[in-house]
Write a structure and sequence with these properties.
alpha/beta, five-stranded mixed beta sheet
Length: 317
C-alpha cells in the first residue's frame, strides 16, 4: 500500500467515523476522474466499511480500491453497468434488505449523471430503502468552474447538461442547429477522443460563439481552452496531443440576442484598438446589444487570447 494513502485511510477513519452510516442503505460514491488524490475522506471510509461495492467495471474498481489499500474479495464486488442496471438493481435491493451497506461507484466521477446509477437509485427508493450521496469529483462541475461560462447576471443563468450528442453526423447536426444554436444558457457536452474532431466540425456552424474544450481534467496533460466555435477544428489540428483524452465541451451562453454575429464582429474590431471596458461600451452603443452579454464574451476572448487588444487591459468595473 502507498504510504500516502495509508495515512489517508487513517485520516478517513478519524474524520468520518463519527457520522452514522445506517445499514441497509445504498451509498452513491463519487470517485476521481483522473487524479487518485481527488478521493474524499468520507468516500475512503465508506468504501472500507461497505459490505458490497457495486460498480460499473469490477476490474477497474478492484484496481482503484487496491491503489488506496482497500481489500475487497470478488464476492464483495458486483457489476452494475448500463447493460444490466435494471436486473442488477434487484440484486442490490436484496442485499440492502439483508442489512448490507452497499457502495456504488462508476468508473470515474459522480454516478447517475452521465454514468450509470440513476436506475439503481430509483429501484432502491422504490423499494423503500435509502440512497445516500457522497459528493466528490465530477468532470462537469470541474470544467464549469474554470470556463467562466455560466452567466448569473441575466435571465438566462445556469447551464444545460446535454451529455453525448448523437454519433451519426446528420442527427448530430440537427440537434446542434435546431436545439443548441439558440439555447441561451451554457450547454455542457461530453465527447470521446475519437469523435472530438467530428464534433468540432459540426459546432463550426455556431460561428463566433465561444466554446471551451476541457480535456484530460485533473491529469498530467490537462488542457482547457476557449475558442470561437469556427476555430475549434484548427485548434485541434494544431497538435496531435490535443485530440487525446476525454473531453468536456462547454458552449458559452448565446452572446447576441439576434444571433446574427454583427455585434460580435463590432466587438472584435474594437478590442483590437481599445481597452476592454471601452470596447464593450462602444459596442453596446453601436449595436444595442446587452452590456452583460458583450462584457462576458469579451472576457472569454481576452482570457484565452482569442481577441487581444492593443490598448490597456482594463477589466475593472
Amino acid at each position: 500500500m502507498s504510504a500516502s494513502f495509508a495515512s489517508a485511510l487513517d485520516a478517513a477513519r478519524e474524520a468520518a467515523a463519527l457520522q452514522h452510516y445506517p445499514q441497509g442503505a445504498l451509498y452513491v460514491v463519487a470517485t476521481p476522474i483522473g487524479n487518485l488524490a481527488d478521493i474524499t475522506l468520507r468516500a475512503l471510509h465508506v468504501l472500507q466499511m461497505a459490505d458490497t461495492v457495486a460498480c460499473e467495471d469490477t476490474r477497474h474498481t478492484q484496481s482503484l480500491l487496491r491503489a488506496y489499500g482497500i481489500d475487497k474479495g470478488a464476492s464483495q464486488l458486483l457489476a452494475v453497468h448500463q447493460h444490466n442496471e435494471a436486473e442488477a438493481a434487484e440484486n442490490v435491493v436484496l442485499r440492502l434488505q439483508q442489512g448490507q451497506r452497499v457502495a456504488y461507484v462508476s468508473d470515474a466521477g459522480t454516478p447517475g449523471v452521465s454514468d450509470p446509477g440513476a436506475r439503481l437509485v430509483a429501484a432502491v427508493q422504490a423499494a423503500g430503502l435509502r440512497a445516500l450521496p457522497l459528493p466528490g469529483a465530477s468532470s462537469i462541475t470541474t470544467a464549469l468552474s474554470v470556463a467562466g461560462a455560466v452567466a448569473h447576471s441575466n435571465e438566462h443563468g445556469g447551464f444545460v447538461f446535454a451529455g453525448f450528442l448523437p454519433v451519426k453526423n446528420a442527427e448530430r447536426a440537427t440537434v446542434i442547429q435546431q436545439k443548441l444554436a439558440n439555447e441561451p444558457r451554457c450547454v455542457v457536452l461530453l465527447e470521446a477522443p475519437h469523435r472530438i474532431g467530428e464534433l468540432a466540425q459540426a459546432l463550426a456552424v455556431l460561428g463566433e460563439r465561444p466554446v471551451t474544450l476541457a480535456r484530460e481534467l485533473t491529469k498530467q496533460f490537462e488542457e482547457v481552452t476557449t475558442q470561437p466555435a469556427h476555430a475549434l477544428t484548427a485548434w485541434l489540428d494544431g497538435s496531435p496531443q490535443r485530440s487525446r483524452g476525454e473531453f468536456v465541451v462547454l458552449l458559452h451562453p448565446v452572446p447576441v440576442e439576434t444571433n446574427d454575429g454583427e455585434s460580435l464582429r463590432v466587438l472584435r474590431l474594437l478590442l483590437q484598438e481599445l481597452p476592454l471596458k471601452t470596447a464593450v461600451r462602444l459596442a453596446v452603443d453601436i449595436t444595442g446589444t446587452s452590456r452583460n452579454v458583450l462584457y462576458d464574451t469579451a472576457l472569454a476572448w481576452k482570457r484565452d487570447g482569442a481577441a487581444q487588444g492593443d490598448g490597456e487591459d482594463d477589466t475593472s468595473d
